Amino acid sequence: MSRLHVENHLVSRIGWLRAAVLGANDGIVSTASLIVGVASAAAPTSQVLVAGIAGLVAGAMSMAAGEYVSVSSQSDTENADLDREREELRTQPEFEREELAQIYVKRGLEAGLARQLADQLMAKDALAAHAHDELGISEMTTARPIQAALTSAATFSVGAAMPLLMVLISPASMLVMGVSVASLLFLALLGAIGAKAGGANIIRATLRVTFWGAFAMALTAGIGVLVGTAV
């Protein structure tokens, strides 16, 4: 008896992986950049720490709200399309059956076979068949606002905690350097983990997040020096 061939497709991770990587990356970059900017303005360690904590809380709430609103808009659009499709299936089922069959014809099926396939799929779940093949809505890609919001807020907080930890353990004279180097290492690790989980090129992903993180911190450090000198 042959065993079933089980495949684990990475695309099934795209929803939570996107929110997780985006949240953690933003947490590290924004909080580290804020800390480096404030520290470069010659602020005492206590003020740097307060600024970092405020950045963590504000950033986590912003990420959660932004993801929830964005993904909710996607969900509203999906639901509107499904409602429209449900009404069309009720009022003109034959047209919808032919429409589905033509989709399969365009994919390479012979017309008769395409109509048989459309009949069988619609007999089982007409709305699901049209949602998947006509609208491109599936279980893997459907919008989940609460999941995206909670994932982004949690991973942002984890990412932001890393540079904050460096503020606590780094000497005041080495604060900017310690936070910068550690944050770039955290970013490189995050890029590698995200690439591994998503099946992407690890080196390319690691270099990408590290480069833009270094650019953001260098820019805010320069602004902090200018502000500190002016004040």
Automatic annotation (TrEMBL):
The chain crosses the membrane at residues 21-42, 48-69, 148-169, 175-197, 209-230. The lineage of its organism: Bacteria, Pseudomonadati, Pseudomonadota, Alphaproteobacteria, Hyphomicrobiales. It is found in: Endomembrane system. This is VIT family protein. Keywords: Membrane, Transmembrane, Transmembrane helix. It is a multi-pass membrane protein. InterPro entries: Ccc1_fam (IPR008217). It comes from Aminobacter carboxidus.
